[in-house]
């Protein structure tokens, strides 16, 4: 079967996209509100796109009532945020942080998540995250006035010590167990992996 995107409702397009573009990495974004409350929210319309400068992007839609999400408002105000990645031990808390929290209640505090200071920005990171990237806002793109594409430049990285070989600059994949987003309330583990030999292309005679 096939669809013309213009013939589907936005919700139907969302279902087509999120049902097949799988699994998706999850940006667990920390930001700081105007009263100092630390917000943590997951976004799975997310990825990294460049290394020079190191750029990432995630999409923040409006709440069902039409209001902007706290994450967007905080980043718009401060120009700073941290992208934290979740692994299996943190997956449940990451999922719970996607619930509806009023601005005066920070998800890390409510869920008992430890925070750690960042190095180059004021926004703290999640202390137990396997990987975190401190970001400065690089660009905001408004899409139809109901979704914002937030692009950040990574300026400092934090890696859990046992996950990284700093001599080879390689992750220890047997120790890293990230969680991916599927659709709705479904997630996936990433431990069932396939390794292929290096691709050779067309051999020259």
Describe it for me?
The chain has helices at about 10-20, 70-80, 90-95, 105-110; strands spanning about 25-30, 40-45, 45-50, 55-60, 80-85, 115, 125, 130-145, 145-160, 165, 170, 180, 185-190. By secondary structure, the protein is an alpha+beta fold. It has one domain (about 5-185): Roll (Pnp Oxidase, Chain A). A 7-stranded antiparallel beta sheet has the order 2-1-5-8-9-4-3. Strand 8 and strand 9 form a beta hairpin. It is globular, with a radius of gyration of 18 Å. The model has no long low-confidence stretch (mean pLDDT about 95).
Helix content: 10-25%
Query: How many distinct domains?
Result: 1
Task: Please outline the major beta sheet.
Answer: 7 strands, antiparallel
What order do the SSEs take from the amino end to the carboxyl end, as H and E? HEEEEHEHHEEEEEEEE
Specify the CATH class: Mainly Beta
| Overall mean pLDDT | 94
**Could you tell me how far the N terminus lies from the C terminus, measured between alpha carbons in angstroms?**
43 Å
Strand line-up across the major sheet:
2-1-5-8-9-4-3
- As residue ranges, the low-confidence spans are none
Q: How large a portion of the residues is in β-strands, by DSSP E?
A: 35-45%
Structural class: alpha+beta
Do you know the CATH topology? Answer: Pnp Oxidase, Chain A
CATH superfamily: Electron Transport, Fmn-binding Protein, Chain A
Q: Quickly count the helices.
A: 4
Number of strands: 13
CA gyration radius, whole angstroms: 18 Å
Cofactor: FMN
Domain Flavin reductase like: 19-178
Pfam family, one: Flavin_Reduct
Organism: Bradyrhizobium stylosanthis
